[in-house]
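tokens incoming
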């Protein structure tokens, strides 16, 4: 395996040959090529960090490629290898060759799509787009579980005069999980992401090799999380602080930034992370955040990767635009994904958890296996201020000049009586209330306890997610 250094590839230089891409990514000498006479596509079976992969790449230097039907047929055979060998599929597209892919591409793209759909949930699928890709390449890549885009040229944004890098534009619109400016950075991220994923749905994720103490206490968490619910902080700092060696691989970080998703390890066990982000839109769930979290949750469940949710959510985002955009329908996607998921689910309420937004973040009543909270957490149908305004409106109105004082007293009483986590624990909504400094210890132990989970599900073809 060749060492990968971002400086080894000039930014925006996309002439990295297909052979060089494969040489940089795969274990040295591991590639067994398929159909070598068919030019324009290079691929076959190889290994990455000692684990098998089916892989192919378009060759940007091939100026006389085989006709589109032959290239599509070769790609289909590599998909078939992934199915037969239950090997993760890595596909690399672009930049496009000089031909337009018009000869036979109409049949080739659906054939690839059929295989990608059949492979979904069987093995992980990862795609890299080198520069702007259109047509069949863009369609095929969009079916992958994770997509990485590499800048190659500028693309029009909303205004014709406004130019933004292709990869960043794609990342902000949710078309890809990461946008980078050079090929080496893309391959580095792909390798790091791959290290958290199992080879197929029947195998566990690979264990890490960290010597970070699973019982390590993190004393500074109490200083990180403000008591006041309206103050912002960065949830990713908390995730990194409790994960093995501070490592957290975040995906889709430029899209729906009020929701955080990615992978981390606790005691060398991999877990998918879903977290509200108070530093953006106060961590509220809008329709983009709901869809982002739902798809990631379904991916983790398909490969039995445990889920850990870090909850600090004031609710679903209200507003006319959200309603016109189908907030209820999009929110139902997250609720469905949470109820459907049978992989181990652990939830930690960090600060506030109100209403239906709390429910869809792997709450106990939506199938959470182990549900935890900090002592300062608030769990309720709505926030104390909103609840008091609704329940005691007349009493506050009659207070006249003392209205603010009466409101503050009622809010404090409501918070002390109904919102604290011990009340939620007494109702069976929580399993334990833990000190923040023991977060890493609690999550590591929970993952270890849930390793033996054997879910029971009714026999069926598949459910009908509210798309």
């Amino acid at each position: 395996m060749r060492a990968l250094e971002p400086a080894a590839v000039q930014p925006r230089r996309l002439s990295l040959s297909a052979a060089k891409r494969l040489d940089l990514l795969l274990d040295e000498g591991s590639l067994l090529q398929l159909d070598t006479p068919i030019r324009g596509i290079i691929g076959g079976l190889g290994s990455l960090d000692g684990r098998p992969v089916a892989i192919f790449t378009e060759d940007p230097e091939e100026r006389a490629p085989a006709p589109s039907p032959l290239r599509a047929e070769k790609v289909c055979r590599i998909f078939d290898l992934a199915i037969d060998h239950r090997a993760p599929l890595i596909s690399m597209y672009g930049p496009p060759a000089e031909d337009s892919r018009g000869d036979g591409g109409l049949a080739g793209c659906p054939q690839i799509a059929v295989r990608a759909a059949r492979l979904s949930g069987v093995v992980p699928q990862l795609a890299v787009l080198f520069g702007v890709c259109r047509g069949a390449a863009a369609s095929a890549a969009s079916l992958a579980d994770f997509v990485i885009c590499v800048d190659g040229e500028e693309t029009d944004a909303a205004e014709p005069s406004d130019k933004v890098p292709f990869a960043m534009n794609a990342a902000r619109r949710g078309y890809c999980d990461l946008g980078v400016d050079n090929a080496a950075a893309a391959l580095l991220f792909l390798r790091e992401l791959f290290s958290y994923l199992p080879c197929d749905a029947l195998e566990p994720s690979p264990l890490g090799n960290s010597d970070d103490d699973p019982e390590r206490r993190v004393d500074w968490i109490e200083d990180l999380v403000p008591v006041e619910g309206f103050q912002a902080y960065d949830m990713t700092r908390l995730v990194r602080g409790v994960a093995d060696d501070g490592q957290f691989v975040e995906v889709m970080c430029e899209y729906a930034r009020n929701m955080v998703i990615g992978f981390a390890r606790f005691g060398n066990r991999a877990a998918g992370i879903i977290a509200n982000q108070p530093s953006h839109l106060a961590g509220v769930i809008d329709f983009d955040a709901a869809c982002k979290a739902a798809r990631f949750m379904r991916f983790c469940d398909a490969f039995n990767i445990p889920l850990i949710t870090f909850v600090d959510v004031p609710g679903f985002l209200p507003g006319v635009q959200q309603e016109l955009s189908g907030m209820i329908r999009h929110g139902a996607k997250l609720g469905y994904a949470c109820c459907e998921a049978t992989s181990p689910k652990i939830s930690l309420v960090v600060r506030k958890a109100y209403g239906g937004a709390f429910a869809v973040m792997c709450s106990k009543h939506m199938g959470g296996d182990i549900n935890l909270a900090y002592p300062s957490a608030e769990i309720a149908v709505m926030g104390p201020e909103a609840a008091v305004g609704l329940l005691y409106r007349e009493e506050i109105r009659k207070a006249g000049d003392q209205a603010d004082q009466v409101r503050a007293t009622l809010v404090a009483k409501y918070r002390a009586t109904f919102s604290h986590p011990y009340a939620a624990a007494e109702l069976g909504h929580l399993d334990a209330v833990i000190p923040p400094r023991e977060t890493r210890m609690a999550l590591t132990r929970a993952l270890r306890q849930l390793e033996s989970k054997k879910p029971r599900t009714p026999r069926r073809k598949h459910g009908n997610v509210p798309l």
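note: Confidence is low (pLDDT under 50) at residues 5-14, 98-104, 153-161.
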